[in-house]
Amino acid sequence: METVTTLNNSAIALTEANKPFEAISLFRQALTLEPENPMLWLNLGIAQQKTGEYMEAIDSFQHCLIIDSELTEAWHSLGLIYYEINEFELSEQCYISALSHKGNDPKIWNNLGVLHYNDENFEEARNCFEKSVSLCPHFYDALFNLRDTCRELGDYRAAAEFERILSGLDHPSKI
Question: Residue 53's CB: how many other CB atoms inside 10 A?
Fold first, then answer.
């Protein structure tokens, strides 16, 4: 019989190899052994999200958060799904919850900034992107978004500086 750890690790590898459907069955198998393991619910949700099964993924992330309400990655993942299905207020609430547990995550600050940018709240978007860049100075996506936000605000000098920084980066950063 396989252990929860073996099932989880195999399923994570399948998810990363873009085989989320195969991963889902392994996560479900592991959950029969440890139904109160929040990481299994989180990983199941991530695999479900990759398949486009958003409602199932939302259920998995919510189940994870019932077990461990401080799991930042679950809040962040839930925010991403709500963004994908155009539930922007719910997305913002999830990002804010994630930041309340881990306020130094540049990806979450960047995603919150994108929400504000799309809502044309450019000042708030700029604040979020600046926070993201302060936490990770070479985060390509945040720099790109900050440059565009500065252009929207008419701060062309700052936009030019961020363009200069972007041009010096070899490739988009992975954080």
Answer: 17
